[in-house]
Amino acid sequence: MHPTLLDLGPVTIHSYGFMIALAFLMALFMCQRDGPRFQAPKEFVNSVAVGLLIAGVAGSRLLHILMFPASYSWSDPVGWIAIWRGGLVFQGAFPAAVLFAWFYARRKNVPVLGFADALGPYIPIGHALGRMGCFLNGCCYGRVTDISWAVEFPRIPANPEAQPTGSPAFLDHLRAGLVQFEDMTSLPVHPTQLYSVTGLLAMGAMMWMFREWWYPFRGVMICSYLALYGLLRFVLEFFRGDHNPVHFGGVLSDQQVFSLAFVAVGIALFVVLYVKERQRQNG
Known about the structure:
The chain is mainly alpha-helical and 283 residues long. It has 2 domains: 4-151 and 188-281, no CATH class; 152-187, no CATH class. It contains 9 helices and 2 strands. The chain has a two-stranded antiparallel ribbon. Strand 1 (4-8) and strand 2 form a beta hairpin. It is globular and about 75 Å long. The model has no long low-confidence stretch (mean pLDDT 89).
């Protein structure tokens, strides 16, 4: 766990924020390269990029605030915007970014589905980089387990006499009475962040292959992303241990309900776009 990558006095580089920035730059570069193939000129990609980042971060932060209101207080106003501490729910980023891209693309007369196909495979790859930031930050940790590849998150600071201030897993286990104040680590937990990294990289590779070797219609990347990510997140949620809210009868977490909605929308959109493409081809 390395929440801070570099600390030079007034300049502090947080691992979570650094990985988000790296993901943004990677997706921007790859979309610049692929955009013209899908009628998304490089100039459009450059102009839409910052707005997409802002919309995505704002949407993911807003959903986190709605899901975890107790984590925010007006006594700590910086905490509302301190995304370097974590606190982003990716399901909130996607609809906010899609709405912004749709309005902006219409204004610039660029086919938004073509832009989505240019960017599509790189969204899960960028998300994987963000999940590495989660692992370095210690957030989004897993359930307690005894598997051989479990991880233990440290007490911060590593001093039994000092008040712990970090490592969400350790602090949550301390509050639950699972560890003692003088312990040095949390209990072993599933490395769910690394599960996410693996699944998202595989998802990005799969989407790229769909696009390069199949590509049945414009917009297939949005359908693929919604269905695949929804399925991945639904499964991963069974291994999460960071107390995601449950408001739907206690059977599924809120995140799993959102994930099922993603899958349903992805499948429905696939059918609609596929039928429209067949009708276009048949005249």
